[in-house]
Design goal:
heterodimer; A: Rossmann fold; 2 domains; 7-stranded mixed sheet; 11 helices; B: alpha/beta; Rossmann fold; 5-stranded parallel sheet; two-stranded antiparallel sheet
Chain lengths: 324, 329
């Protein structure tokens, strides 16, 4: 076991994938010479050279469009979008091209691209550098969407994404980059679409992903002091999401809260709650409660951003509503 | 300037003529099938533009890739797609190229490097640039090509893609099929720049040719493709051509005046090749035989297309992803 930072785990996953498969190339703004805006791709240019680690112009539409064409012609590009907010500029390439090519061309071709993008607040980056837009992407048939919560998964899910023949969006919460954790040896693997139980419990299920897993675990620890034993499910993957794991947990606890940093309305939680309200109806002993950011753009000022981002106090309040 | 490529034998020209006739015949029949209600949705015909794909394809190798657009039937046929599977697709059959999921705007055949028609204006441009990046890194000696209309010149991603291709000196041939119409609007109301100015801004070499002259298009393509294969980076050919039909079938073209439409008809690239063939001494029966062959091939393909079966929804649903989530451990 070695303790490393989340960003270093991403770096190791990229390096190991590139060492294993010459078709893996990196594209993005400042990913090569500068080592990435968050330092995640540091050292990869020196190790793999400028043909495979490529600084691109500030052209998100062309970067992702180029990755799609390269993938259709035999490469396995890994693209970095500097902030998830900038994915708006690449939506045609993702939604109309990458997501649909396999289906639309009758299964003739796959588009094995990975698009990494950091989401989330906590660094006072303001309305255009802090959003959590994952629900948009999870809504598009043909895309897969994963969101690791810890060091081991940052490595394992990225390796799984690069190995996957379909386009996979890897969302990294920028507040997690500096967090530390163990990267086991042999290196961990993951299967896209499988959740994990981050904390077992019997009284209520808290379903979450990404940086909110830490928040939910803090809430669960506080609730334990009050005699409430919460189970925390780390989804790890939003598209596909592990409906079976969530349903199994609900069948034990009969109460559920879903939380994410994204705004609550029309978020990933809406889909999970709607689905469980259907297939889990007979198991429910309380309301299905969501925790998300208020319906507004992420604000800049520290006091405003702190207020905007869901925290453990809000999770605790939601659990108490679910328990009734 | 006369280049060696501009001289070609009567039999070579007859071959180009046959290719153009095949596209024309296929599209005339598509128009009829659409009018008769056998083809639903939208189809966009390239009647009047056939010299462009045929002239360009004459310079390509099998491993070269091609990204197309919504007006892409000619590109597909020129790249050597199977005509039966082409009609099967556009008729919405399970045995079509895309299993009936794509239709006219998404015909593709990866086995011949045809990376797909595309319903989004300009979207094929970065796809071709990416394909060129793959060719370059895999050192396979192939090039990528992309056909786009003058309407795509106003799309931002085209500008980004020109920049990227030039910066990275990628082996890509940009082909602008300039027919002067962006859907229902004339170029004068769509784009302030000239194609040459756009290419020049990024240091991309370019040539403008009469896109209704298949010999000129072929000559420009041979020169450009040779230059690109030699590692000189991207090149652009602007083919000035003529859209005879509407933006899509069923478009009454009320925005075009009668003289414009009449002029468009007079520029028919197929009639020009016919005149040239006669000049070169090709016999009337040989010219007629080429037309008959095209008609027969299209007839056969349509018969096969009509005999195709309906797509199966469950099969379609299963093809959204390459691999669904594995069973839980």
């Amino acid at each position: 076991m070695t303790e490393i930072r989340f960003g270093q785990a991403v770096n190791r996953a990229l390096a190991d994938a590139m060492a294993q498969d010459a078709a893996v190339v990196l594209l993005g703004e400042d990913v090569a010479a500068a080592g990435g805006p968050f330092g995640v791709t540091r050292g990869l240019l020196d190790r793999f050279g400028p043909e495979r680690v490529r600084d691109t112009p500030i052209s998100e539409a062309a970067i992702v469009g180029t990755a799609v064409g390269a993938a259709m012609s035999g490469l396995r590009p890994v693209v970095e979008i500097m902030f998830m907010d900038f994915v708006t500029l690449a939506m045609d390439a993702l939604v109309n091209q990458a997501a649909k090519a396999r289906f639309m061309f009758g299964g003739q071709v796959s588009v094995p691209i990975v698009v990494r993008m950091p989401h989330g607040g906590g660094i006072n980056a303001g309305p255009q550098h802090s959003q959590c837009l994952e629900a948009w992407l999870a809504h598009v048939p043909g895309l897969k969407v994963v969101c690791p919560s810890n060091v081991a998964d940052a490595y394992a899910l990225l390796r799984a994404a690069i190995d996957d023949d379909d386009p996979v969006i890897v969302i990294e919460n920028k507040a997690l980059y500096a967090s530390k954790g163990d990267l086991p040896e042999p290196k961990p693997s993951a299967s896209i679409g499988h959740a994990r139980i981050a904390r077992p419990g019997q009284d209520v299920t808290i379903v979450t992903y990404g940086a909110m897993v830490t928040v939910a675990l803090a809430a669960a620890a506080a609730l334990e002091q009050e005699g409430i034993n919460a189970e925390v499910i780390d989804l790890r993957s939003l598209q596909p999401w592990d409906e079976i794991a969530v349903m199994e947990s609900l069948s034990r606890t009969h109460r559920m809260v879903v939380c994410h940093e994204a705004v609550e309305a029309f978020g990933a939680g809406a889909e999970i709650v709607a689905r469980l309200a259907d297939i889990g109806f007979d198991e429910l002993d309380g309301p299905l409660v969501r925790v998300g950011a208020p319906f507004m753009p992420p604000p800049f000022a520290k006091t405003l951003e702190d207020w905007f981002r869901p925290n453990s106090a809000r999770v605790i309040a939601a659990v108490k509503r679910a328990i009734g | 300037m006369t280049r060696p490529e501009t001289t070609l034998s009567a039999s070579e020209l007859l071959q180009l003529y046959a290719g153009m006739l095949l596209i024309r015949e296929a599209e005339k029949r598509l128009s009829g099938l659409f009018t008769d209600g056998e083809i639903p949705g939208f189809i966009h015909l390239s009647i009047g533009q056939e010299a462009v794909p045929i002239g360009i394809a004459a310079a390509l190798q099998p491993g070269d890739t091609l990204a197309s657009n919504h007006r892409g039937h000619g590109h597909a046929i020129a790249k050597g797609l199977d005509l039966s599977r082409f009609f099967l697709e556009i008729l919405g059959r399970r045995e079509g190229y895309c299993g009936g999921r794509g239709g006219s705007m998404h015909v593709a055949d990866m086995s011949v490097g045809m990376l797909g028609a595309n319903g989004i204006v300009g979207a094929g441009v970065p796809i071709a640039v990416g394909s060129a990046l793959a060719h370059k890194l895999r050192k396979n000696g192939n090039i990528a090509t992309v056909f786009f209309g003058d309407g795509a010149l106003a799309e931002g991603v085209l500008h980004e893609s020109f920049n990227l291709a030039a910066l990275w000196r990628l082996p890509v041939l940009f082909i602008c099929e300039n027919n002067g119409w962006s859907e229902f609007s004339p170029a004068s109301r769509q784009i302030a720049a000239e194609v040459s100015g756009l290419a020049g801004a990024f240091g991309i070499g370019m040539e403008t040719v009469d896109g209704n002259d298949v010999v000129a298009v072929r000559a420009a393509a041979l020169a450009a493709v040779g230059r690109i294969r030699d590692g000189n980076g991207p090149f652009l050919i602007e083919c000035k051509t003529t859209r005879i039909r509407g933006h899509f079938e069923g478009d009454p073209q009320k925005y075009r005046d009668a003289t414009d439409l009449e002029a468009a008809g007079r520029k028919d690239p197929i009639k020009r090749v016919e005149a040239k063939l006669r000049e070169m001494g090709v016999s009337e029966p040989d010219i007629i035989a080429a037309a008959d062959t095209a008609a027969r091939r299209v007839d056969e393909a349509i018969a096969i297309g009509r005999a195709g079966t309906s797509p199966i929804p469950s099969e379609t649903l299963a093809d959204v992803y390459s691999k669904v989530a594995e069973a839980r451990p």
